[in-house]
Design a protein that fits this description.
The complex is a heterodimer.
Chain A lengths: L1 E10 L2 E11 L4 E6 L5 H8 L7 E6 L2 E2 L4 H7 E4 L11 H11 L4 H14 L15 H13 L5 E5 L7 H16 L3 E5 L3 H7 L2 E6 L2 E7 H5 L4 H9 L1
Parallel strand pairs in A: 3-8, 3-9, 6-7, 7-8
Antiparallel strand pairs in A: 1-2, 1-4, 4-5, 9-10
Chain B lengths: L1 H14 L17 H25 L8 H25 L5 H6 L4 H34 L6 H11 L2 H18 L5 H23 L10 H14 L1 H11 L3 H34 L21 H14 L2 H33 L8 H6 L1 H14 L15 H6 L4 H31 L3 H28 L8 H7 L1 H26 L3 H34 L3
Classes of the chains: A alpha/beta, B mainly alpha.
């Protein structure tokens, strides 16, 4: 579903991502881990069309984000680590705006939005402006708007930051449910225990280079993911 | 004091985007060259005007009145602009959380914000004051004290209008924060304060009987201004008859006002800032989960609505965009109401040898010139990319083309500008009985001219984006993009008005003149639209936030 082909991204002379290649198959929950500044967010932003990249290609469901950005974006939902939403809008208006952009029929919106709003316990705040929300509530609005168009691919950058324990639990359940129904999830995280329990495959990046990729079992062996990660980062 | 300068340095490094010469990460523009080129152009225009005023005053031996004349004009401009800048600059800025947690007294935070405001205004006041001072220096007989006195005046002149506008801004912020719809209240009171400031300022020059450029008229205005604004009169006195005591009084007035301003603003800063940060929690109405009905719209409509929500949620954005249009409505009203008086006044002028009937035929061109003033000076789009800030990433991940996103911004700007301008056009056309061709050309011009400038605005903002500003005010008023557009707008307006009137007085006539100018703008508009599609979308995708 996602194919990263020899992607390189430079900032001046510095390579933020250096010739990275891997695939994420349909039905996988894929963890992307690395230190701060390793290049995780840069690759994620390239995958969702925020950044351009210098070499290589990124394919979403067989289509290039470079040459077919709109087709690719229709299949993706992106949740950033620090959701910057349109703060002057009410939560419901923002979610509806995103639905408009994905051209979701009006008849399908209400039920889907309310399902996720109830799940994340935010239905009572939907009529409030986003600028009155906490970080966690904004993250929930970002999640609902991302899920409202029922994407095939969910790409998330540190999705659990700022969420309360109940929302984290629901989020994990939702991720499992999504892949069971043929979805694909790719996310970066620093919470290695969670990645170990939740993910089927993992990639470890260091200073822009991919140093390990494979199934969770093959990467960590008998050790914990945390131990393997710390050993590789030495 | 060292602590204050460390803070100021850090704050200026972040905030003075306009004068940033070094390239930032991902910035492919050529630095501050364009800004400085346009500032030099502005300097030159004022220098030409200052010379003509000097020429008019010199024969009657009152050339020193040039100085209070220019100082008062600059002070009024700073005061009016400061009123709508100050609330956004002083309160609820991005660095507030950091500043308020530092172990520094609040007066230092206020002083820091005022100093930043002051430094910016100093640069722009200099564009107006320096040319006049240089003209006086080179053409009048001066004492050696003139240069140091002028330097001190230049440095101190922005203080009073800045402090005054910040105090007015504080009152407006404090008052509006009591209301649920504080943005609306803030905008209304800011407009009211600006209009009051304008009326008071212009009533100062009540002695001005007509708009002739004769020496007596300018001298009359200059004398009135020197009397009405004490520091301006003091400067004129020092320029002709220097006394150390006057210099001391001048410096003392400004320093005391600065000190008092800081103390008063610091006393109320925390309370007003806290209230300004409190957000409207909206309605307590809850959604009925069983009956939720959401309206679907086309992506372009949804984008335009989103732009409106940003526009109406940003007071400084509304006041900045709305002021020129409101002035157009006032100007159009005055033209209808007072046209005969203006006509008689101009026709009786010795400097403008034209009869009343010929002047009457020029009314459509005068209406066109008025429309140029409103539409060529309104740059809503010049800050719309920057105002996205980090939320630009939302747009970049949407399954919509960059062209659609940029068009939505231009359409929103046009929808803000057009209604009042078109109504003003129609009122003038009916009142003065314009012919169909003249009315059509005026209406077409009213669409094409702002469209041209809005496309230019967005192209400029795409080239010079400010994605990390500390406040909306910095983007709307002090960013490189808006400054380039403002100066370009002044240039475009001067040239267009000159051409439309000049061509109307030639064999081409009124309709020919309006037709040629409108035609030229249609061509420019199409070329800019082509550039927006070719280059604009590419630049949009390159912007990093």
């Amino acid at each position: 579903m996602i194919e990263i082909r020899n992607v390189t991204k430079k900032y001046g002379d510095k390579k933020a991502i250096d010739d990275i290649s891997f695939k994420v198959e349909t039905g996988e929950i894929f963890a992307f881990i690395g230190h701060n500044g390793a290049g995780k967010t840069t690759l994620i932003k390239a995958m969702v069309g925020i950044h351009d990249f210098d070499e290589g290609d990124i394919l979403i469901d067989g289509k290039s984000i470079k040459t077919n950005p709109i087709e690719c974006k229709k299949k993706i939902a992106y949740i950033p680590d620090n959701p910057e939403l349109y703060e002057n809008m009410k939560a419901i208006d923002y979610i509806n705006f995103i639905c408009d952009m994905y051209e979701i029929p009006a008849s399908k919106r209400g039920a889907t939005i309310m399902k996720y709003a109830k799940m994340f316990e935010i239905e009572d705040a939907l009529m409030s402006p986003i600028n009155s929300f906490s970080h966690g509530m904004k993250q929930k609005v970002a999640l609902i708007s991302a899920l409202a168009h029922e994407p095939k691919v969910l790409i998330m950058d540190e999705p659990f930051v700022g969420l309360d324990p109940k929302a984290i639990f629901d989020m994990k359940e939702l991720m499992r449910d999504m892949v069971e129904h043929g979805g694909t999830i790719f996310f970066s995280t620093h919470i290695l225990d969670m990645a170990e329990k939740l993910c089927t495959r993992v990639a470890i990046v260091k200073k822009g280079k991919l140093i390990k990729v494979g199934s969770m079992k093959s990467v960590k062996g008998d050790k914990s993911l945390e131990k393997v990660f710390l050993e590789l980062e030495k | 004091m060292r602590q204050f300068f460390v803070l100021l340095k850090a704050s200026l490094t972040e905030g003075m985007d306009l004068f940033r010469v070094k390239k930032k990460k991902g910035d492919k523009s050529s630095g501050a060259g364009a800004t400085f080129a346009l500032m030099v152009m502005m300097f030159f225009i004022v220098w030409v005007y200052a010379n003509s005023w000097f020429d008019a005053l010199s024969p009657i031996g009152k050339e020193s009145l040039l100085l209070p004349f220019v100082i008062v004009i600059t002070t009024i401009m700073t005061l009016i602009e400061g009123i709508y800048k100050s609330s956004s600059l002083m309160y609820n800025t991005r660095d507030d959380d950091l500043l308020l947690t530092l172990p520094i007294p609040r007066w230092k935070i206020v002083a820091l914000k005022l100093t930043k405001f002051y430094l910016f205004e100093l640069i722009f006041n200099s564009m107006f004051l320096l040319p006049a001072m240089i003209v006086y220096l080179t053409r009048a007989t001066i004492a050696t004290s003139f240069i140091p006195v002028s330097i001190l005046v230049l440095v101190m002149m922005p203080i009073i209008p800045i402090v005054l506008s910040c105090l007015i801004g504080a009152v407006i912020s404090a008052f509006s924060s009591k209301f649920k719809k504080r943005t609306v209240v803030q905008v209304i009171f800011t407009f009211a304060a600006m209009i009051v400031a304008m009326v008071v300022s212009f009533s100062v020059s009540a002695s001005m009987n007509n708009v002739e450029t004769s020496g007596e008229s300018i001298a009359g205005i200059g004398e009135t201004m020197a009397k009405a604004y004490y520091p301006a009169g003091l400067y004129e006195k020092m320029a002709t008859n220097f006394e150390v005591l006057d210099l001391g009084i001048f410096a003392l007035i400004h320093l005391v006002i600065a000190g008092l301003g800081i103390l008063i603003l610091a006393k109320s800063f925390f309370r007003i800032n806290t209230r300004a940060k409190m957000t409207d929690r909206g309605t307590t109405k809850k959604i009925d989960s069983e009956k939720i009905e959401l309206k679907a719209q086309k992506p372009i409509v949804a984008l335009i609505k989103k732009e409106f929500s940003r526009f109406f949620g940003t007071p400084v954005f509304i006041t900045n965009a709305g002021f020129g249009i409101i002035l157009f409505v006032i100007g159009a009203g005055l033209l209808c109401w007072k046209f005969d008086d203006i006509l008689v006044g101009v026709a009786s002028s010795e400097d403008f040898p034209i009869d009343i009937e010929s002047l009457r035929k020029l009314i459509p061109v005068i209406a066109y010139a008025l429309m140029c003033f409103a539409t060529l000076m309104s740059f809503i789009t010049s800050s719309m990319i920057s105002l996205e800030g980090k939320s630009i990433n939302i747009l970049k991940t949407l399954p919509t083309s960059a062209t659609t996103i940029l068009r939505a911004k231009i359409i929103m700007a046009m929808l803000v500008i057009l209604p009042l301008v078109l109504i003003g056009d129609i009122v003038m056309a009916i009142w003065f009985g314009f012919g169909i061709t003249e009315t059509l050309l005026l209406l077409i011009g009213s669409i094409v001219l702002p469209a041209t400038m809005q496309i230019f605005g967005i192209l400029t903002n795409l080239k010079y984006p400010t994605m990390d500003a500390e406040s909306d005010m910095e983007i709307v008023k002090q960013s490189r993009s808006t400054m380039i557009c403002s100066l370009a707008g002044i240039g475009a307006m001067t040239v267009t008005v000159g051409f439309v009137i000049g061509l109307a007085l030639s064999d081409l006539g009124v309709v020919g003149s309006m037709g040629v100018v409108t035609g030229v703008y249609i061509i420019i508009c199409l070329l800019l639209e082509y550039r927006l599609r070719k280059v604009g979308t590419k630049r949009f995708n390159e912007i990093a936030a």
